[in-house]
Amino acid sequence: MYNIHSHYETIFYALTNIVTHRRVLYLLPYGSTQPENIESNTDDISRFGKDIKDGPLFICYDQEPILGKYNYPLFDEINKKQGPKVLVTTEKDSDPLNHILEKYNWKSVYYFHHAFAAHDWFRGYRYDERLLSTEKRTIKKKYISFNRITSGLRAYRSLLIAELIDRDLLKDGYVSYNDTCTEGGNYRENLQHLVERNLITQELAESSATTISSSAFPLRIDYQDHQFIPNHSFVLSAVEQTQESFCYLVTETCYWEQKKHLTEKIFKPIVSRMPFVLVGPAHNLKYLREYGFKTFSKWIDESYDDIEDPIERMSAIGETMSKICSKSEDELYEILQEMSPVLEHNYQRFYSNEFLDRCWRELKENLAAAVNEF
């Protein structure tokens, strides 16, 4: 099993046969994004001399997505350091990443960071007896969805909630939703921020807010005694309720951008042996399949994954959920049994050494390729 706490030290030693002078920057605590959070591993300058500062500096900004201007304070500070820079990220075919590379004249290395994080965080669930085989489940709800951070670019989750309410689907699912985000702002304010970023129209913001206001709050699955729903990325929440649900409606960290970027969130239904509908950037189901996982087009309309316009994609996701919710619990139970070989394949793939080894080989190969470009 992987240990994410020694991850950057492991990368540092992986560079031994790739570069002469190793320099690695990363951020702690996990999820940090600011200059005061910089940590480093560097070869002893007394052994190599001052020329160590002329070797490539590997910047591991891989825990969080690249956002653009938000990253400037951190990257401006790092750019003051000597030597060429290599930004190590967990996103692929990314417009925001390309903008950063052009701005700073850096090179980049891609790898699937959250495969390693999820492998560490979810390793114990192999022995959790609350996670049931498909035949032992009783379907009480047609889907489950967690929507905790709802500000910034993740205010798209308010659009999702409005979509579910418009289609009268809330009653069919277990749904958590912070109408006031723990990181700031209520849904009206955060939808307005999307308007200011030219991501949605004023009309859509107002109609969505009106729709959301028609629902009774709070929307909670678990943490009923908390003012806000805590953000516990490293655990499976509401395990009993997931096992009573047919489908996991995954709301990923990224939605608006053109990029391939997945986090630990996509692995929660996989560990739970559940089918999923993915609310994220376009083509990310295809991206997941590149790593040997299977999705559910035989039973679930996944055409939304090909829609690049984010508003149209949200509507298509709503249509997919409507089709799922139109079926009875008994029908969904039978479909779940048909899916069982795919669910088991994904579960075994996630926990396999082959998956993690593939991700590690990819990282090392991409590190070496970046160095060869200098």
Properties at a glance:
2 domains, four-stranded parallel β-sheet, 9 strands, 12% strand
CATH architecture of the largest domain: 3-Layer(aba) Sandwich
Strand content: 5-15%
Summarize the main sheet.
5 strands, mixed
Derived structural class: alpha/beta
Radius of gyration: 22 Å
The N- and C-terminal alpha carbons lie at a distance of: 35 Å
Mean pLDDT: 94
What is the domain tally?
A: 2
Helix content: 25-40%
SSE series: HEEHEHEHEHEHEHHHEHEHHHH
Question: Which CATH top level class of the largest domain fits?
Answer: Alpha Beta
Strand order of the largest sheet: 2-1-3-4-5
Tally of DSSP β-strands: 9
As an assembly, this protein is single chain
With helices defined by DSSP (H or I, 4 residues minimum), what is the helix count? 14
- Uncertain segments are none
Morphology: globular
CATH topology of the largest domain: Rossmann fold
Protein topology:
Blueprint (H helix, E strand, L loop, with lengths): L6 H8 L8 E5 L10 E5 L2 H4 L8 E4 L11 H8 L5 E5 L5 H10 L2 E4 L2 H9 L19 E7 L8 H11 L6 E5 L9 H10 L5 H12 L25 H5 L1 E7 L15 H5 L4 E4 L4 H6 L20 H16 L3 H23 L1 H20 L2
Parallel strand pairs: 1-3, 3-4, 4-5, 6-7, 6-8, 8-9
Antiparallel strand pairs: 1-2
Helix pairs in contact: 6-8, 6-12, 7-8
Structure description:
With 374 residues, the protein is an alpha/beta fold. The protein has two domains: 4-110, no CATH class; 125-349, Rossmann fold, CATH 3.40.50. The protein is built from 14 helices and nine strands. It has a five-stranded mixed beta sheet, covered by helices on one side. The mean pLDDT is 94.
